[in-house]
Amino acid sequence: MGNSIILGEHMSSLGWFIGGPLVYFAVALFLIKTALLVKKYLDMPRHIRWDLYPLPHNGAEGSKYQKVDFGQSKPHSHVMHELWEMGQEILFIKKAYVNNPKIWFGSFPLHAGLYLGIIWLFLLVTGAVLELNQVFIGPNSQSLFSSLIYNATLFTGVGSFVSGLCGALVLLWQRLTDEGMIFMSDVISYLNLAVMIMLFGTGLAAWMTVDSTFAEMRHQMASLIAFRFVPVGETLVMLHVLALCSFLIYLPFSRMMHFVGKYFFYHNIMWDDEAMKKGSAMENDFASYLQYKTTWSAPHIRKGESWADQVGKGSPQEGGKK
User: Do the Cβ atoms of 221 and 124 come closer than 8 Å?
Assistant: First the structure.
């Protein structure tokens, strides 16, 4: 009896820590690290542009060079064309479907699970706020709005767990059996999938066994919003919250942060066709880049000199004469 009481106290303390301080820490770390990563990308030098036409923001013509007077006319920006192209890639993983359909069958449900999970968390917050204001959220909700929140939470939560888990398992199976995938897979690749399987697997297990209406998750969310640390009651729910916190802590330090870099890759590399004008910020930036000094040498490059000096003095092969 005494051992059972001690074990119960330990579990309660662990549930209190996971359901309160750990969640706050994980969310804060994720937001701060993500913000720092965005700042890092913003502060980096301009990338060499690809200008792979057609460019979505140029509309139906695809390129400003289709017009004879493109240099004199103001460039048009077709936002809807760009949003449509981005939407296809973000929501449906278009490039994977077109270029590698086999990978798409795992990648798409995995990403769909993540997107549904984000919506599920938003709905949990909405439901928690309503319950803090004495509005019941459950299978017997009285109002149409609360009933809608309940059913949407159920749909997105279960959909997220099933879709994400299936996608992660398909990708794991491909990495273990496909010769090409085995060759390019490393420990980090398997670790990323393991984190995903734990995230979606614990969520699905908790829903199937102890939290079929997500009442426990809503209760935990309400306690976080009200800044009242309440121990997580059910072990499987506690494991899912732990998996979610671990995912948020791991994510900003992992390769999965490519979703932040993608915006800069598309807008600053693939789709950037801004013209350089005299006195512009772009011209000033590139003028400063010419002062960067090389840390390597070659028959045509002198180590330790700036790029401007390399061009001005000519190559070593030419005896330093331009």
Answer: yes
